[in-house]
Specification:
two-stranded antiparallel ribbon; single chain; about 5% strand; about 150 residues; mainly alpha
């Protein structure tokens, strides 16, 4: 069996093509966010109607207080977030998105939808459902193997 016929090789090619397109979209959109910044902005947008503080970022992303503080300081300097003193405790700063960040998240979400449309092009709904089942099975195989290897240690 040649490498062109292996599942792993095909998955690697697909990964590379997706990554190229994502990077091109980011470049075209002027998006210089790190992956973690993008995740934090998405989290803040999903929870815009709630009061979110640094401790929620620490818990959601399993990062230390120092790491969260540094990330949020950088994001504030880049005018992606605002830190607004809480009315009940001036030591606490509520996190809020700037309009600039909101536009970036909206564009990133549109880019993801566009990528999904491209990836599913030419598939019927049934084929898409089956394909997702196959991918879940591949992931399950890998996760099971990791568990089995961990048990050997």
């Amino acid at each position: 069996m040649g490498r062109n016929e292996t599942v792993g090789y095909k998955i690697r090619l697909i990964h590379n093509q997706i990554q190229k397109r994502i990077e091109e979209r980011k470049r075209r959109n002027g998006d210089e966010l790190t992956g973690m910044q993008r995740w934090i902005l998405g989290f803040l947008m999903e929870h815009e109607n709630e009061e979110i503080y640094q401790r929620e970022i620490e818990a959601e992303f399993s990062v230390s207080r120092a790491t969260a503080s540094n990330m949020l300081q950088v994001m504030e300097r880049r005018e992606l977030i605002l830190r607004i003193p809480a009315s009940h405790d001036a030591r606490l700063k509520r996190l809020a998105l700037t309009d600039r960040a909101r536009k970036m998240v909206t564009q990133a979400r549109q880019d993801v939808r566009d990528m999904e449309t491209l990836l599913k092009k030419g598939f019927s709904q049934e084929e898409e459902r089956q394909f997702l089942e196959y991918l879940d099975r591949v992931l399950g195989n890998l996760e099971e193997d990791v568990r089995e290897e961990a048990e050997k240690i």
